[in-house]
Design brief:
Elements (H helix, E strand, L loop, with lengths): L1 H5 L2 H30 L12 H24 L4 E4 L6 E5 L6 H5 L27 E5 L5 E4 L2 E18 L2 E14 L6 E5 L9 E5 L5 E3 L8 H6 L9 E3 L3 E5 H7 L7 E3 L5 E3 H4 L1 E10 L14 E9 L8 E5 L7 E23 L1 H13 L3 H17 L2 H10 L7 H14 L5 H5 L7 H23 L3 H7 L1 H14 L1
Helix pairs in contact: 3-9, 9-10, 14-15
């Protein structure tokens, strides 16, 4: 105050306005804090009698309900899905029914086949470009390693001699003998399911184009295959046993849409068949009991599908294995390089089981999506109506969607006064009546009107009387007369 008394007038005016600003800001902050801790929002049911809102709601409800029901039933979301770990193993074994040697009357003990053998395959003839000298019998040219399996399609024997030059040792290749394996397509790929601990299931072979055929059942119980899946044609060269399956490599390659005679160009621009380079097959095995869930009889039906996939090779890749043969010395040795088909399994599982808790939760979540309709109408359709000029619907919507209750303090005052004046029971019993002429209802109506009048008075206080008289003098006089009449 001492400083302001000696300060210029404009500084005193600025200081006083700053003080009033601080007071108004403090009141605003206090009011905002009070609203934050006292304003509780609750759901309110408002019925708007407008076909422009009700008809779109009905259309959306029907469409969304049909979509939810279709998805809920078709995908069987009420079933609890688990993914147990499956570890099947693969191996190659000879076809005992269509043996290469038995068909030709050959002695499979012999190592090489002669050109005079009947039904000589075309690729077994000598090829000077690729240094192919003939074919070898398919006997003992397959193996399994852990879960994967390897089948030889071509073998190359390298004779090498050790050369020492300036205290450096180096193996020099002196001879190369390269032969194909005769008809490896007749070999069978065996899929062992014992580690998967599966139930007795129907097996399918799935092709690259999406179609599938059914493995020929040779189990003790084939009732499920014959009754439920008889419309699916059988795979021509396959068998399904109790714990393993046998499928010819020719059928596997056909399902993967690849052939051993397909040519490919790799290292040093050499073009040769895939039996020369070898290839890798990824065998996808999918176990499930949800396939055909809605086929009669309804319920789970254990099945599995085998889908082979040929993995591509880059320009310098070749699938082979290399090992040293017996009979080597300190200066000579013989190496065997085997190119072939490497089969690797990849198993997945999707097993469904019915649980009441999971089914109830899924159904409630599915019904919860119906709340999207309210959001679409309240936030999108109303805006569209505003842009289209349907202002009546917009005004009716905004007028009825929001309502503010009495303050708890004022509500308590009226509550206490009504307890003293009325002779009826407790307050809870009185306010539950639906009678519009009940004394409690009338009292709260009057109190609500009183509070609204107080709010209007507070708003009028913020308006300058001088400004009102300057702009609308007739309005000021009429408001004084009306306020006198109200009193």
């Amino acid at each position: 105050p001492q400083y302001l008394s000696s300060a210029p007038p404009y500084l005193a005016a600025m200081a006083s306005s700053a003080g009033s600003c601080r007071e108004s800001l403090g009141e605003s902050a206090w009011s905002a804090a009070g609203d934050f801790f006292s304003n509780y929002e609750t759901d309110r049911t408002v019925v708007l009698r407008s076909p422009r809102l009700r008809v779109p709601e009905l259309v959306l409800q029907v469409c969304l309900a049909v979509f939810i029901l279709q998805q809920f039933i078709s995908s069987a979301d009420f079933m609890k899905i688990e993914s147990p770990k499956m570890m099947p193993s693969l191996s190659f074994r000879p076809d005992t029914v269509n043996s290469f040697c038995e068909e030709r009357g050959l002695d499979c003990i012999q190592e090489f086949l002669h050109e005079s053998s009947p039904d000589w395959p075309e690729y077994c003839k000598k090829n000077t470009t690729l240094n192919i000298t003939g074919c070898v019998s398919p006997n003992d040219h397959y193996s399994s390693r852990r879960a994967s399996a390897f089948l030889t399609t071509m073998e190359t024997k390298f004779g090498q001699v050790l050369k020492v030059n300036n205290s450096k040792q180096r193996w020099i290749t002196t001879s190369v003998d390269r032969k194909y394996i005769a008809e490896p397509e007749k070999m069978r790929l065996s899929v062992d399911h014992r580690s998967a601990k599966r139930q007795v299931a129907t097996g399918f072979l799935q092709f690259a184009n999406g179609s599938r055929c059914r493995l020929h059942c040779k189990r003790e119980d084939c009732s499920q295959d014959d009754k439920l899946w008889k419309h699916v044609e059988l795979c021509p060269d396959s068998e399904a046993l109790d714990w393993s399956d046998g499928i010819s490599l020719d059928e596997i390659l056909d399902a993967a849409n690849v052939r051993l005679n397909d040519t490919s160009t790799h290292s040093q621009n050499t073009t040769a068949a895939l039996r020369y380079w070898g290839l890798t097959l990824l065998i996808h095995i999918n176990y499930t009991n949800m396939d055909g869930f809605w086929k009669w009889p309804w319920g789970t039906k254990p099945t599995y599908s085998i889908r082979p996939e040929a993995l591509g090779l880059n320009s310098k890749a070749q699938v082979y294995r290399l090992h040293r043969l017996d009979g080597y010395t300190s200066t000579t040795r013989m190496l065997l390089k085997e190119s072939g088909v490497h089969a690797i399994p990849e198993a997945t599982a999707k097993m469904g089981e019915f649980e009441q808790a999971h089914a109830t939760t899924s159904f409630v979540v599915a019904l919860g999506t119906l709340s999207i309709i309210k959001i679409v109408i309240n936030h999108i359709l109303i805006r569209c109506y505003r842009w289209c000029g349907c202002k009546t619907v917009v005004a009716m919507f905004h007028l009825t969607r929001y309502k503010e209750s009495l303050d708890e303090k004022h509500f308590k005052e009226v509550h206490d006064d009504l307890h003293e004046q009325l002779e009826s029971g407790s307050y809870t019993e009185m306010v539950e009546t639906d009678d519009a002429s009940h004394p409690v209802t009338e009292a709260f109506k009057k109190l609500s009107q009183k509070k609204q009048a107080q709010k209007r008075e507070q708003i009028d206080r913020h308006v300058s009387p001088t400004r009102k008289s300057q702009t609308h003098p007739e309005e000021t006089e009429s408001s004084e007369v009306s306020s006198g009449s109200e009193e």
